[in-house]
Amino acid sequence: MDDDLLLVLSTYVEILMTLSLATTTLSSALVKYKKLKTFKRKLGHRKERDTAKQQAKRLKTRPRGRRIPRQLSPDTDIYDRTGLYAEEFFKLLDELSHDINQSRNHGPSGTHRVVPTVLSADVRLMMILEWLRTYPSMKKLARDYGVSKAFHIRWPAIESDWVRASDFENTVAAIDCSTHYRNRVHPRQADYYRFDKKGFSITAQLICGLDGKIWRVDFGNGHNNDSGMVELTGLKDVLHQNPNLRNLADSGLSRGLKQSPCEIQSRLRKTQCISFRYPERPPERIVSMVMDTTA
């Protein structure tokens, strides 16, 4: 008899505890519902009171969410687009993903320009390989990959427009250095080594007129770069003594001694200046020099 009574009492207590918990949960849910309903009502009244200008200002000041790059679809036929099997494509992606994702450096000041991307690294690599394989137009690439912008470099088509835009008529000569590799080893081989060229070479500095005739050729050890050759040959002092002598040259010459296409970028109305100093570039650098579809 006592055992039955104890069982009934324990069941009764359990039921009371369950009811108490359910009541607390319902009460909390009701409070939250009332707060949400009040907030929506106030929000609706506030929107009715606000003018169109105030609403636009409030929407403009809202923080934008982080943009998620578009990923590669699993149904994409990689071989049809790139000519590579999936295993080869992803192996290439592993090797180039760091270079594709890193910030780009286009400005003459050397600052890195970080841009938000709408395409993931694998999609951008596929776009690069498809462009290298079939060479479609920029508009077609932008349409196929869902990119809103496609840019290309606009060069003047007429010689007179080129000369007028670039101010090249004020120049008198063109100066540049070239690298010539050598394989012969001797005790002074270190003087011919240059780190960025990864080899032993002889540096040749060439000066020619605007008509293409060669005026002067100087040779130096391979460790000398463009600015080093200018000082070694005494050309730097000559240019400083004659500031009106403007020369076509790249960034190897000191500022103020040369006229380069990078300095007249705005007048040529192009998106970026291409540097032809290094002929061997990875695929993502090739496309970054030709188009910008990640902005």
TrEMBL record:
User: What is the protein named?
Assistant: Uncharacterized protein
Stretches the record annotates as Disordered: 44-72
Lineage, top-rank taxon, reads: Eukaryota
Q: Which keywords does UniProt give here?
A: Membrane, Transmembrane, Transmembrane helix
- Membrane-spanning intervals of the chain: 6-31
User: Which residue intervals are annotated with compositional bias (Basic residues) in the record?
Assistant: 55-69
